[in-house]
């Protein structure tokens, strides 16, 4: 079955360019001249391209994407983002992002700040993804948490243990 084999290829990720979660997809909105970059939430092996889009009032690209119907297409390209990968080490990985569930997490971090500092001292890598304002707040909070240990977000960045994918 030709259709069935194409479906199997899609499920296996065949026919897609090589990409991984954390790489970027540039989408050229209709009527726009500048592509908008979105972080990929899927990898080639998943057999699909997945992103998370928040509709911004008056947003050219977010408005177009949230209005897409099945079968409609967009003009897009994939850009590797090698600096924003979890890495292959055995150390802990601390993932920080924005979203509706961030409220209780902030409370957990405030109550287990000592544990965050301990994990980072032990070699944990920190990955931050989201808006610039959120990222600045994260860096400020981490600076306070890490100060007693003589560490800073800038030092972690220099060591490759603090990476950001911010917009």
UniProtKB/TrEMBL annotation:
Residues 1-87 form the FAD-binding FR-type domain. One of its GO terms (molecular function) is oxidoreductase activity. It comes from the Bacteria. SUPFAM superfamilies: Ferredoxin reductase-like, C-terminal NADP-linked domain, Riboflavin synthase domain-like. It comes from Roseisalinus antarcticus. The lineage of its organism: Bacteria, Pseudomonadati, Pseudomonadota, Alphaproteobacteria, Rhodobacterales. Its cofactor is [2Fe-2S] cluster. This is Sulfite reductase.
